[in-house]
Amino acid sequence: MKKFFLSLLCLGFIVISCNKNDDDPIIEDVVESPEEEDIPVIIELENEINDFIWSAMNSWYLWQDEVVELSDDRFASQNDYYEFLNGFATPVSLFRTLESPKDRFSAIVDDYDILFNSFSGVFKTNGLEFVLTRPPEGGDKVVGVVRYVINNSDASTKNINRGDIFYAVNGTELFAQTDVDGNITSSNLDLLNPDTFTLNFADLTAEGVVPNDVNIELVKEEITENPILISKVLEVNGTKIGYLMYNSFTSNFDEQLNTAFSDLKSAGVTELVLDLRYNLGGSVQSATRLSSMITGQFDGELFAREQWNSKWQSVFGFENTFVSDIDGAPINSLGLNSVYIIATDDSASASELVINSLTPYIDVVHIGDVTRGKNEFSVTLVDNTTQQAIFAEGESPSPIPFIVLGGQFTTVEDSNPNHKYALQPLVGTNVNADGFGEFTNGLQPDFLLAESLGNLGQLGEQGEPLLDLAIEKITGVTGKSLLIDTPENLKIHTISSSNRLKPFREVSNYDIKK
Known about the structure:
Elements lengths: L1 E2 L12 E3 L6 E3 L14 E2 L4 H13 L17 H8 L5 H8 L8 E3 L2 H8 L2 E4 L2 E6 L9 E7 L15 E5 L2 E2 L2 E3 L5 E4 L8 E10 L2 E12 L1 E4 L3 E9 L2 E8 L7 H13 L4 E5 L8 H11 L7 E7 L4 H4 L2 E3 L3 E2 L2 E2 L7 E6 L6 H9 L4 E6 L7 E3 L2 E2 L5 E2 L8 E2 L22 E3 L1 E6 L15 E2 L16 H11 L20 E2 H4 L13
Parallel strand pairs: 17-18, 18-23, 23-24, 24-31
Antiparallel strand pairs: 1-4, 2-3, 5-29, 6-15, 7-8, 7-32, 8-9, 9-10, 9-13, 11-12, 13-14, 16-17, 19-20, 19-30, 21-22, 25-30, 26-29, 27-28
């Protein structure tokens, strides 16, 4: 609360009287007014969380030098600073004010455990993975198309299959208005947010999407999703093709990923289709390891070079290299000189990093659609101002506030016990060995093919169009699904998805986090 201390103004006065012995007026002594005391106004900080947010963003944010409110000389005094912070009713409103117009992905959370769980593949879901797109008739209406169902989830018990279509939630039809760039400006998609809701399904007919009286209630629960959905070998025209569908770069599953590559290697695959069509990103370390499994012949060579803001570039501007082991265990590498990667408009961040960083070394054939266009990475920041680290041998410890570090560091344990707020701001970008890293508008496919209503096929099976296209480019064998002429109004263009509705799924993080 602002406290203002006011002094009392004492007014002096002149007393004029008549002396009974003298007609002349007598002017008595003047009582002078003391000067008003100059007591400073002291403004108190109303919310310590706001102080954490501004200080952390001022230190680490990628665009700190471009955001006026984050300027190092923004405030003339502590009073000015506190007055600014007190002007925001919530921490979220302050955080959004400090974001650059370039920023599409930074995040804030009031409980860092939710954030860390998400990084580990733990989140609340009913298990239904879907895309939200326009129905054939167009307009502002939205339909959901089932992509797949997570094993051991509520949806896995409800007889829901890939390609099923829903048009409403709890009897209310879905809609979304978008701008020219496809950004949602108004919608009722928050109907999908509650832990329990009923989906109303429909059939795709010649007349469009028609309700079919199938209504299924779904309940969200906390589960751990294995990002390796499918790993198998396809033998087509004498060629052994490995197929791996990988839906999130979750470092907790890197050993299982290495095991999957061991199986592919033992099977003698000579080609690989890496399916990242629904993968919005995750661990940069996992991306480096996956790329090393695909290749193996570039151990120690540059995978990606980090670019941080000017305050931290000299400290964290590392060169990430291809690796040969995971915590001492040898990586199972295929030694390939080419890879076929399925990526779409729901592929982002670490998925794009793999495509971009492999390109200088091997032939990367991108099949699908233009990717999301997220070339930045983030770190986790918590309210710990006392953390120190030694950056070079023989040096004294230096302050390294807020950033969550692993190993011997106890960043979270030593953080402010009064709250659990955490930030996940964008703090840097990656460039590949050729110095390229600007793909804000997405990575363009070598062979464009969108998923479509009525012709989705089954993931990992011949007859699924995107996989069929990859197989055609490898073997020359054209799958039947590619002979179907798909009208434009049946092509799926992502408005949103279950992926994007999950907390922090679009985060690409460095593994200096907890």
